Amino acid sequence: KQTYIGPEGVLEKRRKYFYPCTSHFYRNPPQLVKGEMQYLYGHDGTCYTDFFAGVSVVAGGHCNPEITRRTAEQLQTLQHTCTIYLTQPNVDLAERLAGVLPGRLARTFFVNSGSEANEGALLLARLHTGRKGFIALEQGLHGRTYLTMSVTGLAMWRADPQLDHPQAQAVEDVSFIPRPFERGMSREAAARRSIDALKEVLAEKGGDIAAMIAEPIQGNGGIIVPPDWYFPEVKALLEQYGVLLIADEIQTGFGRTGRMFAMDRWGVTPDIVTMAKALGSGVPVAAFASTDEIAASFTRPSASTFGGNPVSSAAALAVLDYIETHRLPERAERLGRQVLDGLRELAGRFPRLVSDVRGAGLMVGAELCADDPGRGAQLVDEVLEEMKDRGYLIGKNGVDRNVLAFQPPLVITEEDIAEMLAALGQALHAAGEVKGEIAHGVRP
Ligand code: PMP
Fold first, then answer.
1. Which domains are present in the chain?
2. Which residue is closest in CA terms to ligand 1's atom 10?
3. Cα of 320 to ligand 1 centre, how many Å?
4. Which GO molecular function terms does the record list (predicted)?
5. What is the DSSP letter of 293?
6. What are 216-258's pLDDT values in tens digits?
7. 162 has pLDDT over 60
8. Which residues, other chains included, contact 193 with Cβ-Cβ below 8 Å and sequence gap of 6+?
């Protein structure tokens, strides 16, 4: 039987052997030792319903038997060769992706992480257009390589000359424009302001810009869903200037938002789509896809040691089959409404705590104390801890870290959601009571 060193033992080794920048959630974090679909287990046997920890394991849940069986079979048959040798799982996967991606995005390049997919997409855009600049949204997040950190807007993740290390300056010519969201502004007005800024940048230097990169719905930025007209208008403007649109679907892809890809919701076909996280349901696999013409601009030798290896490809094929068989995008849409409705009901009960509820499918955020984000961030930490103790792992994000994030595996059930919402009502009540932020007469 496996013996566990426990959370304290894990923390001690992390402090000793990890880079000091390595962070973790919770004052008293659990040591996770087992996963079963939407459930995770601590070393002491505590069961947690996962509303965030598996943000990259959306499709089939943790250790989904159908997906792990097919992955394990491949692992025991042919584990690894790179793309310079012929194998079948990666070509089957590329064919499947061509079938689910919008428009003529039928070419896929396999890599190993989201950052690497975005890095490849950005380089590809430069090679194809012969231009150097990029446009990105403020508060976006695109990865942790040098170039992707440079198009990342969120200060916490960005390569930035304002930070303490001038050596970590953003590397490239990147024009940031406001995202389609601003505290105290209507969604429409914020989106309009973003479009106006885009027009200005394009008018000034559109001819030097290779691509705009954007998350269709910002994840780490705090779950930002733009108005329906926003991305169609962005795409049309970019086309006028021959600027490519790179959709970073790393967090939104594969059913999470109620569509296979979030851009599908608005009928927008990007020029390049990047994918990772959910695609392998826990096994590292990532890709960027584009059209025949754009793909033809990539003329460098392209072998990647692990990109498109048989095991990752077999896992991704099993994931795509599972998503299709179980109609997971529809499921995410339906259950997402339950989460949104439940959170809105809580916002009605706790108006001084819950300021805004937003999301699409099973990518939902609840912003706490928008007028006092410091207090909001403190509350979020308290609620996260309290919910963990009650058996629910939820997430946090947003510029001020004051947004509760709900991104469960798509196999979550109505009962799981109803129970979580009931517990959340109690957790909010307990957290708000301390400072008298609960209206008189509201019950836990
Ligand atoms: N883009 C988005 C939208 C992400 O959420 C992330 C990861 N949080 C990345 C890129 C980077 O992906 P990876 O960690 O696999 O490099």
1. 6-60+327-433 (3.90.1150.10), 65-325 (3.40.640.10)
2. 142
3. 20
4. alanine-glyoxylate transaminase activity; pyridoxal phosphate binding
5. H
6. 999 999 999 999 999 999 999 999 999 999 999 999 999 999 9
7. no
8. 178, 182, 185
Q: Are 125 and 211 in contact (CB under 8 A)?
A: yes
| Interstrand relation of 209-214 and 244-248 (parallel, antiparallel or unpaired) | parallel
Q: Measure 426 CA to ligand 1 centroid, in angstroms.
A: 32
**Ligand 1 centroid to 151 CA: how many Å?**
12
Compute, in angstroms, the gap from residue 37 CA to the centroid of ligand 1. Answer: 22
User: Measuring from each residue's beta carbon to the nearest atom of ligand 1, which residues come in under 6 Å?
Assistant: 113-115, 118, 141-144, 215, 219-220, 248, 250-251, 276
Degrees to nearest 5, angle at CA 251 with 247 and 255: 95
Atom of ligand 1 nearest to the CA of 115: 16
Atom of ligand 1 nearest to the CA of 116: 16
How would DSSP label each residue in 81-103? --TTS--SHHHHHHHHHHHHSST
37 — alpha (psi -120 to 50), left (phi > 0) or beta? left
Pocket test for ligand 1, best of 115, 118, 148, 149 (most atoms within 8 A of CB): 115
Considering the entire predicted model, what is its pTM? 0.96
Atom 13 in ligand 1: residue holding the nearest Cα: 114
Cα separation, 314 vs 126, in Å, equals 32
Best CA proximity match to 178, nearest among 161, 162, 170, 190 = 190
3-state secondary structure 154-216: CHHHCCCCCCCCHHHCCCCCEEEECCCCCCCCCHHHHHHHHHHHHHHHHHHHHHHEEEEEECC
User: Can you tell me which residue has the tokens 């706490």?
Assistant: 368
pLDDT single digits (tens) 38-49: 999 999 999 999
Tens of pLDDT along 98-153?
999 999 999 999 999 999 999 999 999 999 999 999 999 999 999 999 899 999 99
Residue 313, phi then psi, degrees to nearest 5: -65, -40
Q: Which of 145, 148, 277, 285 to mutate to test the pocket of ligand 1 (most atoms within 8 A of CB)?
A: 277
Q: How far is CA 45 from CA 39, 42, 48, in A?
A: 12, 5, 10
358: left (phi over 0), alpha (psi -120 to 50) or beta: beta
Q: What angle is formed at CA 194 by the lines to CA 255 and CA 228, rounded to 5 degrees?
A: 40
